[in-house]
Amino acid sequence: MGRNRLRLPFAVVATIVAATVATVALRPRSGLIEPAAVDPQAYFSANEIERARAFRGPQRALGVGGMVVSGGVLALIALRPPRAVRRSLERAGRRPLA
Question: What is the pTM of this model?
Fold first, then answer.
């Protein structure tokens, strides 16, 4: 039983290490590229810019609300999985792969 308890933490640590290595390996060698300065008025009318600013607030609220709902559902499923998922996990626990 003791060996099985270390599988999940080991998998999490291995995932974090792999993500860190990939981040370092894929980072641009010459550093970050500075964005060019762009004047929005050169591309958009004042009406379009104002419309974009008015659109920004509700979009941000919808995005944050969506993340909160997704996080809540994920937490609910993790803390109290549905009966079918619990049965599947119990069945899988009785027949480990390794």
Answer: 0.49
